[in-house]
Amino acid sequence: MRDHFEIRDHDAAGRIGRLSVPNAGVTVETPALLPVVNPNVLTIEPQRLREEFGAEMLITNSYIIRSTDRIRDRVLEEGLHDFLDFDGAIMTDSGSFQLAEYGDIDVTTAEILDFQRRIGSDVATPVDVPTPPDVDRDRAERELSTTRQALADAETADTGEMLVNAPVQGSTFPELRETAGRHASATDLDVFPVGAMVPLLNAYRYADVVEQVRAAKRGLAPDAPVHLFGAGHPMMFALAVAAGCDLFDSAAYALMARDGRYLTVSGTEHLDEMTYFPCSCPVCADHTPEAVRDRDDGETERLLAEHNLHVTFEEIRRVKAAIRDGTLMELVDRRARGHPAMLDGYRALLDHADELERTDPVSKDAFFYTSHEAARRPEVHRHHDRLARLAVPDRLLLTESNAPSTHDYDAVWRVKPPFGPFPRALSETYPLTAETPDRLDDAAQVAAAEGVAALADANPETAITLGHDGWCAEALRSVPDDVDTENLRTLGR
Which residues are catalytic? Predict the structure, then answer.
């Protein structure tokens, strides 16, 4: 039981949590974004990140501080919080990114953890090996062994009240990620970053990101706070949170501003090509694209970075509200329409609907069917699983229409795509109160037919008749042969 992380709300695998950071004396609400602060280049001052943008936590690189003579002694003397002028929580990286980029660094886990403790870091990181995607399995296993040793070294280090990260590596091998998650979770370390995701994120391989996160989550304990290293584009926060991530960090707000790029929740725009700003943040409300372009380079970069932060933190708040309202999957669905790679990620997430269902609340305000992907949501999966619990009579009519005024069935149940059959007494219970379009797609009908099949399989002695509203051929093929079917559109002609 990790008493420094308390889960308050769930939706799918997303959650609102409270991460206690004792070294800083603060509690951070998750999901949370940690802006990356380069100690050598302060695009936006950390105090402003806290006061104007709402950052409760940030991340900086202890290896850069240790390797830079002109700031190392100052940080050791003043402490990291005073040096950065930030009174929230501060996480520090160890140099693992530099190891991945350049192949070697001159510091061990014991040395860098000691340095992080001495400068007053609140959440420290050992020197793990961020194995990139698509390497051969031998390399992934070899480097995973090195990361395990780093975690062992971290467990024996004197860290005081400083929390310590336990990175979960494994390249693009889900079984290695799951094993690594189980190993990390068995340590007495505190926060669990899913590492080496930046190459996948930069390549928009969101389906692969989801697969690796879900694999890590299968190994990790349910109360393990999960950090998705290097994830900072607002369009993917809802997806990543629904997959089970709690913390994010990225320098995207600054790096993209440096390249003249403007972040939105559906993608990235180039400032040079913009005529209007589709945003009402303080930057966009007070400036036109032309006015921002006309500033000197430093001022243009600063204004773009501020906008990028505003839209990023706004999306984090929107995700939290969706979790609280029980509408996170609807938000993921909307974000998935912004980019084909996001749609791939959403579909990959729905491949794990059985896992999401374990933490998804059984009751919410409403279920909105807004795309054929919604037919695969956890709520549909749960309803099909629970059909076997229902008491079923000998002769049963399932119908999308009203119950006939006269009949010789023992009971008449409703059928509602995408869920399928249920007793009419449950009509006002979630998710059967779902809002669905009048023009339902084939996926909803197929899902409903699978519900009929689940009920029939659980009750082989029951004679079932299905009255459907002109279901497609694929849906009718999913109905068992021993279920009689009637097309309500042609009945009585």
Answer: 93
